[in-house]
Amino acid sequence: ERVVRSAIAAWEERRGAHRDREGSLAPVAGHPFLVEAGVCVNGKKLNPGITIFRFANRIPLLFEAGSDVIVKQAAGVDWGRYRVDKATAKIGVFVSLVSTRIPFRGTGKEHIAEDVDEIEEEVKRAIQHCASQLSKKLAKREAAKQRKARRKAGFFERARAALGHPIEIISGIE
Known about the structure:
41% of the residues lie in helices and 18% in strands. β3 (49-56) and β4 (59-60) form a beta hairpin. The chain is of the alpha+beta class. It has a 5-stranded mixed sheet with strand order 1-2-5-3-4. The radius of gyration is 24 Å and the shape is rod-shaped. It has 3 helices and 5 strands, in the order αββββαβα. It has helices at 7-15, 69-75, 117-171; strands at residues 18-20, 33-41, 49-56, 59-60, 90-99. The termini are far apart. α2 (69-75) packs parallel to α3 (117-171).
């Protein structure tokens, strides 16, 4: 199977954004659907806490977010499990539901119904998959910082051992 990567996907990987496009094509009431998700941490334009960006067929849903399936699933994720502090970190969650028939509630078509179990499970799985990928990247970044700190500390220890006696003689400390 051939995988085509775009320049945007490469940029997202460098920025720490993770996404999951392996949605379910299982039909809901005879209509297939796909859930696309992305999670990022500490973006410049995000507020502390969780900021949720909802899309239906890649069109942003701007109003009536309170009873939306995406908001409920993103809020229900245990972010501590993924090495992210929900209170202080700036978490961006991007979820798009793509389908020929999206189960909107209300006449404004501004929020997706939370009573369809298949969609609810797929949204939850997609967010958790992205958070898992993000957790792995954060762990690698933290390990690299610790390695760098150990190398730096080791350098200063070797320098102190090599220069310790001459410095004591010059400064008069015995």
